[in-house]
Amino acid sequence: MGDGVTFDRAELARRAGDIGAAGGVRAVVLDDGAERGIRVLEFRTGGGLAFDVLVDRAMDLGTAEFRGNGFGWRSATGFRHPGLHEYADEGGLSMLRSFSGLLLTAGLDHTLFTAEVDASQYRYPHRAAVWNGLHGRVANIPARLHGYGERWIDDERCVLWAEGEVRQAAIFGEHLRLTRRIEADLGGTEIRLIDTVRNAGFDPTPHMYLYHVNVGWPFLDEGARYELPLERTLWQSDSVAEQGASNVEMPAPQKGFVEQVYEHELKPDATGKVRPRLVNERLGVFFELEYDSAQFPAFFQWLHLREGAYAVGFEPSTHHVQGEPAAREDGSMTFLEPGEERRYETTFRVGEL
Q1: Residue 9: its H or E element
Q2: What are phi and psi of 326, to 5 degrees?
Q3: pLDDT for the residue numbered 6
Q4: Mean pLDDT, the chain, as a whole number?
Q5: Across residues 222-238, what is the average pLDDT?
Q6: Of 203, 196, 352, 206, which Cα lies nearest the Cα of 288?
Q7: SS3 helix, strand, coil % of the chain, rounded to 5?
Q8: What is the pLDDT of residue 298?
Q9: Is the dihedral of CA 279, 281, 282, 283 positive or negative?
Q10: Model pTM?
Q11: Over the stretch 44-86, which tens digit does the pLDDT of each residue have?
């Protein structure tokens, strides 16, 4: 396990009466402060990787560590219970009061900035348009847990897993369902995310999807390097020119830093995969995100290097940074027909240099 030795099912059984001696998945409920009541699945692979799945937060990924060093961003908000969330609060920016962890999922029908858009396809005269807040609704919807545990494959390889369904639905509105499966190998150092989004309703329904993957200290620190298979930069926020902070060599936390956001065109390999990463040579570790460029044709880099909220983001997206109104105007907006679905397969990988 942690020493690089692997065991098959029989050999592991000889050494321990419970697989929990090597790793596994444990269900707990958080019980204090704004997090109280959130169901969590704690994954330990035995290969140095440990992470939490927030069942009541769309099965997003919260705390994440590799050999004692954290890489899942921890903000001051903590993992706030979704019952405290008010979607339309603060002009649609209420997500910022529950923004923490390795993964925040954006969607299912809207991502990026706030927007009011046409909803005439739902044929309800009193709701001709729908208003959407920053990054949509899904991240604050609890999942219906299908199951979790450990599964041996041919008695040679053990897979830790969890699966659930998140339902985003309204009368005279969208009916989208996200089925999420999370896997990690016993003894392994990667998290596999398999998502399927299906239009379970009977009207053509908008679909936008984005992963806000957030890496924090100590993986992120002064001198850490953000590596990209960069073809070209398509867009950048005004703060890039105003501040001039490098998006490759990371500085220490900055006083009053204004977030810097980029949209990059990245070069996929021969299989269509893209692998941006953060490298920390002082710790001798890396974090890597692997995704399919056909599933996520856009990619944003987020630098939030302010004191007290120090993070960098990896954001594969189905749509460009201008958001939903621009996508509807230029014809690139995705509408799922009744019964239609989209599948997304992504890997989060950590390791030693």
Answers
A1: helix 9-15
A2: -65, -40
A3: 77
A4: 96
A5: 98
A6: 352
A7: 15, 45, 40
A8: 98
A9: positive
A10: 0.97
A11: 999 999 999 999 999 999 999 999 999 999 999 999 999 999 9
| Terminal CA-CA length for the chain | 19
Tokens 């953060």 appear where? 278
146 closest CA partner among 54, 55, 52: 55
Which run of H or E residues covers position 14?
Answer: helix 9-15
The full set of domain ranges for the chain reads 9-352
The two tokens of residue 227 are: 């590596």
What's the CATH class of domain 9-352?
Answer: mainly beta
pLDDT of residue 2: 56
* Distance from chain centroid for Cα 337: 25
Structure-token pair, residue 104:
């925040």
Query: Which token pair is 41?
Result: 């699945």
Per the rule left: phi > 0, alpha: psi between -120 and 50, beta: everything else, 4 is left
Question: pLDDT by residue (tens digit) across 11-52?
Answer: 999 999 899 999 999 999 999 999 999 999 999 999 999 999
CA 16 distance to own-chain centroid: 34
Q: Report how far residue 244's alpha carbon sits from residue 117's, in angstroms, rounded to the nearest whole number.
A: 35
DSSP characters over 290-325: EEETTT--EEEEEEE-BTTS-EEEEEEESS-TT-HH
Place of tokens 């398999």: 194
Which tokens hold the place of 118?
């046409």
Distance of CA 64 to the CA centre of its chain: 12
Q: What percent of the chain has pLDDT over 70?
A: 99
Tokens of 284: 């001798």
Residues 6+ apart with CB under 8 A from 7: 1, 15, 22
